[in-house]
TrEMBL record:
It catalyses: chorismate = 3-[(1-carboxyvinyl)-oxy]benzoate + H2O. Catalyzes the dehydration of chorismate into 3-[(1-carboxyvinyl)oxy]benzoate, a step in the biosynthesis of menaquinone (MK, vitamin K2). InterPro entries: Menaquinone_biosynth, MqnA. It holds the Pfam family VitK2_biosynth. One of its GO terms (molecular function) is hydro-lyase activity. Coiled coil: none annotated. It comes from Pedobacter kyungheensis. The keyword Lyase applies. This is Chorismate dehydratase. Gene3D superfamilies: Periplasmic binding protein-like II. Signal peptide: none annotated. HAMAP family: MqnA. Transmembrane segments: none annotated. One of its GO terms (biological process) is menaquinone biosynthetic process.
Length: 246
């Protein structure tokens, strides 16, 4: 049998899912790679993998995109790993450096600046650019919130703008996947979430960062109706940004 190729995110936010896949019989039916989110998106778009933990902002670029699991990377308010870090308050930001790892959060920053803070800001993808403010996501943000004068948690700001939770990444296939496989995949992901204590026990502690709070409270993993609503709203804001540009 051909194995299903899967790209997952290499960050701590995905460790419970990986634990579930690795400790379920499905591990023998899949080829699993761990990637930064932007590479995960590229692999699903160009067909290098069948399923990926896809940054939602890039879902419109996936041919035949379909969400194959009831689990995701989400939050309801602050997530504690998706930030704008800045030397100046948000209304003084002139250029924002985007994070090369990200697809969703870079777009979320653009949406928030335009529709929440109502600010015109320039963006750079040059990772060496010296800017007052920048987007940073994932494990590289852990314990860093004390280091900057102004810290904006984008999950929290999205909730202020919309009253909704958020979905950063969803399990998306670029082809039809059998219901049997989806059922087994969902069961494995749930197994991982149900064993977060084991996952926590294996993680090295991080100073100034509460891993237990992150895995149990800040991150929320269910694809709910409100989280789907948030995804559609977010994608329509991105379309609106693109319309404004031309
Ligand atoms: C909560 C997070 O969600 C993520 C953010 C992503 C993005 O910005 O493209 C993609 C996948 C998730 O890893 C995080 O990375 O900290």
């Amino acid at each position: 049998m051909n194995k299903i190729k899967i790209s997952a995110v290499a960050y701590t936010n995905t460790k419970a899912f990986i634990y579930g896949l690795a400790n379920s019989p499905i591990i023998n039916k899949i080829d699993l790679s761990l990637d930064i989110p932007s590479d995960c998106a590229a692999k699903v778009i160009n067909g290098q993998v069948d399923i990926g933990l896809m940054p939602v902002a890039a879902i419109p670029n996936v041919p035949n995109a379909n969400i194959v699991a009831n689990y995701c990377i989400g939050s309801d308010g602050a997530v504690n790993s998706v930030f704008i870090f800045s030397k100046v308050p948000v209304n003084e930001i002139k250029i924002l450096r985007l994070d090369a790892h990200s697809r969703t959060s870079n777009n979320l920053a653009k949406v928030l600046l335009k529709f929440h803070w109502e600010k015109e800001v320039a963006f750079t993808t040059d990772q060496n650019a010296e800017t007052d403010a920048f987007v940073l996501i994932g494990d590289r943000t852990f314990g860093k919130t004390q280091d900057f004068a102004f810290v904006y948690d984008m999950g929290e700001e999205w909730k202020k703008l919309t009253g909704l939770p958020f979905m950063y990444a969803a399990w998306v296939a670029n082809k039809e996947i059998s219901q049997d496989f989806k059922d087994e995949f969902n069961a494995a992901l749930k197994f991982g979430l149900d064993h977060r204590q084991e996952v926590l026990a294996e993680l090295p502690p991080v100073s100034n960062f509460d891993l237990e709070d992150y895995l149990y409270h800040k991150l929320q993993f269910e694809v709910t109706e409100d989280r789907m609503k948030a995804m559609h709203l977010f994608l329509s804001y991105i379309e609106e940004l693109d319309r404004v540009k031309v």
